[in-house]
Write a structure and sequence with these properties.
alpha/beta; 6-stranded mixed sheet; two-stranded antiparallel sheet; 8 helices; 19% strand
């Protein structure tokens, strides 16, 4: 009788005599939960990962320096290539709409900075607005750009025009050029590589947003001047890429 009782007891106890046997195979997931400050239940593992991520972000931020004062010229391609409709409704219309969104957001995130707009068409480059801290001026000018494209794009003329203005600005500010280009070619009066070398020497960063295919000269210029180069797929991608330039670039330490 005693032996039978011992046998029944063994069914409920583990080999070490602690707890019930059926508990040995139970995943005690509830023990890994804890309540956060807002009352949500989170696993200890996820909270530890979150704390580690915050710590990593803090350490990374401490090593990165970004300029508070920026001087940027946006160069817009107004050549015949902007009339294509692969980006709806047309490259021209989509670019102007995204540019206006960029202007608004740029001054919200960079209140101490200055922006200017240039364009290139028919082999020439002209200034639409000079460097200014007023978004209203640029928004009005950008709205007037909804027009038909004309002639060829000239990257060298546009870069030279932006360089003339930016080279005279002290280097305490970040000097940048953002080119929105649809043309796959550039009609230049001279050696564009000399212009690129001047920009690199003056530490003027040149970034490109391509509306068509990748071109070597744009990729080379961006690499040479520590800029960025992206080719967009559609209007949504165009907006995301252009608005990514709202964040100040990382300065060399």
């Amino acid at each position: 009788m005693v032996e039978a009782e011992n046998k029944d007891t063994d069914d409920f106890e583990g080999e070490d005599g602690r707890g019930y046997a059926w508990e040995q195979n139970v995943d005690r997931s509830w023990e890994a939960l804890e309540e956060d400050a807002s009352g949500l239940l989170l696993s200890r593992e996820s909270q530890a990962a979150k704390r580690a991520r915050i710590s990593d972000d803090t350490e990374t931020s401490a090593l990165v320096r970004r300029g508070m004062i920026r001087y940027m010229y946006v160069i817009v391609d107004l050549s015949k290539a902007m009339e294509e409709s692969d980006i709806r409704p047309t490259r021209m219309t989509a670019t102007v709409e995204v540019l206006m969104d960029f202007i608004r957001a740029f001054y919200e995130d960079n209140p101490l900075s200055n922006l200017g707009i240039l364009y290139s068409k028919a082999g020439t480059a002209k200034t639409i607005t000079y460097l200014s801290g007023s978004p209203k001026i640029h928004l009005k000018a950008a709205a007037s750009m909804k027009t038909t494209g004309e002639g060829d794009f000239s990257l060298q003329n546009a870069l030279e025009l932006a360089y003339t203005s930016l080279a005279s600005i002290p280097q305490y500010g970040s000097r940048e050029i953002l080119v929105i280009q649809a043309s796959l070619s550039t009609c230049d009066p001279g050696d564009i590589f000399e212009t690129i070398d001047k920009l690199a020497k003056e530490k003027i960063r040149c970034s490109f947003v391509g509306l068509a295919a990748e071109t070597h000269i744009c990729k080379y210029t961006a690499s040479k001047t520590n800029g960025k180069y992206s080719v967009v797929r559609d209007k949504t991608h165009l907006r995301n890429v252009v608005l990514s330039h709202i964040i100040p670039p990382v300065e060399a330490t």
